Structures are given as C-alpha cells and as structure tokens.
Amino acid sequence: MVKVRAARPAEAEDLTGLVMRSKAHWGYDAAFLAACAPELRIRADDVTVRRVVVAENGRGEIVGVASLEGTPPRAELGLLFVEPSAVGQGVGRLLYRDVLRRAVELGVRRLVIDSDPHATGFYRAMGAAAVAEAAAPAAPGEPARPVAEGGGTALVRFEAAPVPLADWARAWTGGGRAVHLGNVGEFNAQFADATVDREQRPAHHYACLAAFYSPYPAALVLPRPVPRGWTELVCRQLGWTGVEVYDGLLDADPGLAEAVRARPALAALLTGAGLPLVPWGRTRAFGRLAGRPWRDGELRYESKSAAHGLFGRILADGGHPGIVLPRQWRVDGRWAAARMLAARTRAGESTVVKSEHGVGGSGTTVLTPARVRAAGGARAVLRRLPRGPLLVEEYIGGAASSGDDEGPRDLTYDGFVDEAGLAHEVGGAVMEVSDGCYRGATVGPGVVPGWAEKPLTAFGAAVGRELADSGYRGWFDVDFVADGTGRLAPTETNLRLTGPSIAFMVAARLDALRGAGHLVRIADRVELGARLPEAQLDELCAALARGCAELGAVFVPAIPTGAFEPAPWLGVLVAARSREVLDAAEALVRAEALAVGAMFGPS
Prior knowledge:
Distance between the termini: 46 Å
Low-confidence stretches: 133-153, 400-404
Structural class: alpha+beta
Number of helices: 20
Mean pLDDT: 89
Number of strands: 25
Strand order of the largest sheet: 22-21-18-19-20-23-25-24
Largest sheet: 8 strands, antiparallel
Helix content: 25-40%
C-alpha cells in the first residue's frame, strides 16, 4: 500500500536523485539533463516552502514526489515525479489527487501545471486541460527553462480548477462516507402495480447502482453477486479505497433489508459503524434495519395521480408562470379508458396512458391517433397494456426550441429532504426518453437550457418544500416535458434515488477528484454484441476506460450484471468537460460494446 506523507528536509538530496532518475526515464541525453538539474534540484529549505510530499510504499521506500507551490487563489504543481521502477503502479495518480485535495484546503482555485511532453497523456487522463503548447516564461531573475533536443518545446501548460465537494453532497451524507443498500427490488415491491415485475430480475441488475448512492461509499450491500473486476475498476476510476462489498445476499426475495437483518453480525457491522445508511428508496423493512420509524403515507406522492394533485395545489397559489399542468383523469376500468381514448383519438388528440406506479417509464404509453388506428382501435391498444388502474393524461406536444436547434424534450429536477426536514436543491438534468421509457440522463454545467433553468428549479424547490411538510425524508425528483412554447409540464415525482441522481453523485466526486466542470451521462442499456463471461467483461471495461481516457473522458461501468443475460447489455457512465467529448465517448462505448460479438466469429 502506497501512502502520501510530508517530505523531510533531510531527504532533499535523495528526492533530487529521484527527480533526475524520473526525468531520465524519458530518454533525454546527459547534456539536456545537466541543463535541467538546477531547476529540478530540491534543497532542504524547499521542502516546507514548496509544500513537498512523498509517496512511500509498504517497505518504507520513497517512490514519488510532488510539490504544491504558490499562494491562493493561483498555485502551481511544481514537481510530480515517480521512481522509474514504480511507473504505471498508480503512484502519480495518488500524488496528483493529493495535490488537488491540498489545493482545495488552501483555497486554490487555479492550479497551473507545466508538463513534460511525455506526461501530457497522464495530465489529460487526470482531468487537467491543456491551455498552451509552449514553455512557460521564466520569472524575472530566473533562467529560461530548457527545451528538448531537436527544438521541441519542453513544457506543455495545463490547468485544473480545484473545488471542494459540492454543498449538497456534503449535506446528503454529512460530508463523509456511507453504507449503500441496493434495495431496488424491495422498494418496487411496495406497490401492488401490475407493471412491477414480481420476480424483480431487472431490479437486481439496477441494484448495482448502489455503488453510486453517494460520492464516496464505505460499503455496498447487494442482492446478487457482482464481478470483482467491476468493483475494482469503479474504485480506480473514482479514486475510492477501502470499499467493502457484501453481495449475493438474496436467493429468494424476502427483501434486501430483511436479508441483512437475518444476518445479525452483518446488520451490527453495517449499522454500528456510525455511518449513514443510504437505500435506493425508503421501505418499512429499511426503517427496521436503520432504526428509523416508518411514517404512514410517507411515499404517497410516488403515486402519479397523487403527484398530479400536488402539482395542481402548488400551481393554484400562482408564482410559476413557466409551468403548465396537463389534464389527467383516473379511470377504474378498461372499457372506460377505451371510451375516453377513442373520443380523444376522434378529436385528433394524442394521449398518455399511465399506470398508477411504474419503474423507468414502465406502464406509460404515448398513443397518437395514428398509433391507435394502426393497432386496431382503442380497445385493441388497451388489451396490450398492463392490468390495474389507469390514468389518462393530456399529451403535451412539441420540444423546446432555441434558434434553429431543437432543445431537450425531457428534463428533471433532483433534490432531497434531510432528516431535519430541510429541502436541498441538487440540480436539473436532461433525460433521454423513448416512447415514455427512460433511457438515460446528462447532468452538468449548461446542460439545462437557460430558458428552462429558472422555472424548473423554482417548481422543483416548491415540490421539495411540500414533500418536507408531508413528512417525507430522502431523495426525490420531479420529471418534466417541454411544450415547445417555453413552458414545462411536470409529469411525476419519484421518491427515491434515480438514474439522474447517480450521474449527480459521480459528477460531484469527479469535480472534487479532478477539478470542476464535469458533464456526466448515464446510459441505462448499452447493447452488447455477445453475452460475456466475467473475464471478457473485465477486458472490455478496461479497454473502454483506456479509450475514453484517450479522448479526455472518464468511463465507469455502472451495471455489469446485464452482460450475463441472454440479451446482454451494460449500464455505463461517461464523463467529460465538453459536450463534444462526452458525445464522442458515448459513441465509442456503444460501438465497442456492440463489436464484442466479432471476437466469437460469425454466428
């Protein structure tokens, strides 16, 4: 285990030797190294002034050195060198992240890095942005910095923007680590809705998202076994250490919280550490495990009709001119729904038919007049829908426009209510929705268009306050569709964690780990070209991580267990600092994932 500690003045000479060996590793000749030596020398009094730290391995050997120089708000990464024998073992990554962490503590908001040309790939992979392809000028009274043989530039300038963990993320878990309980199936099973799969097979795949219920977990508790290579790669990509994984807890389905309570030693370990226990969603069983009283009606606004009523009450008070509420009718029978649908079809109106509860858009169907006629009429359409009470809702048509570009159609607001009843804003996201079904989401700076940001956050905050007053505690989101005239229509609330919430958690972690400004996209189902054994899945994910890093992006596998299904798929997260790089990374992931079938030859 390599650890970082402060350097000691007595080590200055040895550290200078390490720096020169590291520089020589790139093949520079003796004359060039001699020219560099005065600048690269570390003196005893430099150790404190330049804030020098070292990386030390388990045998007490120094394998790397770094320095953080200057005064806030601007500072420099003066040194970052790794012993040649330790290159490729994560020492540089550990030192760089330590420098960023210390920069945040000092109040540094701009970190300048003058990189050796051979290290540019490393700094890009660490999230720094190249800002100039030239040697930095020497300060007055200092010698000019040397250039490489052949007239090439010795240094490439990068910058990073160190930031602390987002305020909302600190409030979510108290700024520390948490125990994550992947109780997706247990949460879904609370609702006696025909659209919710009784076997909960998909829910156990989505339980893998428990890795991302907060920016930095201490432990993951999962119903089904997960690949070891997956947890190792996720920890590497997000800079986590010491994450315990307790998986394979369910053979049948008593519910994950009950499965933990059935193991007293495990329950005591998870609940006795003084860490927050974070579930996908609140359940009575989770309340028993966490020692938290269950409040009757706590999840009543998970109901789509109850949420619609809540939206109506908020809008009745005025103050939300950018919000329009679609009309909604509850129908108890299929034939009543068919008559209403037929009448709307004859009037040329599109209709949304919803179940009272559903997961990821399941039980929600958009029915245009053409689609109803093609299916053979309203009764024929409704025969194919899940049993149970139905909601018939006015369809809000059109996508928002800005100039010649069509804007996003589906948006969401995420927030949470803490145990004291205070509602916190997390932010807005743009979702990918196909035929009423959620497919993924993107979060980050500038994702929500300017015209939508204020009404979305104001209405989402109003919903948060109402949920707090109703007694709800935990994460929530409010989903919207854009009507094409600059207004948003709220469609439902989700009183649990969601796909967008996962993206927010990862964005908060990457911003703190690599510097501000990450866009994060979660894609629920990336089709795989073949059903993959565990070893081949590990190889694919490692290759995707390398390929995305070359683009300047971060790849994190989110749901690995779908890769073992007969119709295989993978849930993924990609992150970048620009929309172009984010799109390129997603395209790379989708293409490479689909191409894995080629390794097995013709079908």
